[in-house]
Amino acid sequence: MPSRDVRPVATSMPEVREAVDAIKEAIDELREIPLLSYEVMDADLAVGSNRVQHGLARTPQGWLIADRDSVATLYRTAWTTRDITLQASAAITVRILVF
Questions:
Q1: Strands 63-68 and 92-98
Q2: Which residues pair with 45 in a beta bridge?
Q3: Torsion angle (degrees, nearest 10) of CA 32, 97, 3, 36
């Protein structure tokens, strides 16, 4: 989920500058919440180890299964700034949210 910068507000009113600074600080704090910065991917997984690329450009802090087309046990065995490795007990198509 791409983040956008807060546009500068030109004003001579100190109250407005303080409000804008408070808003920027609040937005910066929200950006630190991992679940608010995520990628959703669909993946066809085979039995065994599967590498799935994500676009976070950082090491994920977690992942969730958003949808699946069959029953299988899935668990993460590794992750990097570019991909997550999932172990599957059966062939399955999943939609995962990586954050």
A1: antiparallel
A2: 92
A3: -40
E strands of 19-62, at which residues?
A: 39-45, 48-53
User: Global pTM?
Assistant: 0.69
Cα-based distances in Å from 2 to 19, 46, 56, 77? 24, 30, 10, 27
Other CB atoms within a 10 A radius of the CB of residue 13 amount to 9
Predicted local distance difference test score (pLDDT) of residue 3 = 55
Low-confidence ranges of the chain (pLDDT < 70): 1-6
The C-alpha torsion from 78 through 88 and 41 to 39, rounded to 10°, is -30
* CA distance linking residue 98 with residue 89, whole number of Å: 20
Q: Give the C-alpha separation, 52 to 45, whole Å.
A: 9
Under 8 Å between Cβ of 99 and 71: no
Distance CA 10, CA 1 (A): 28
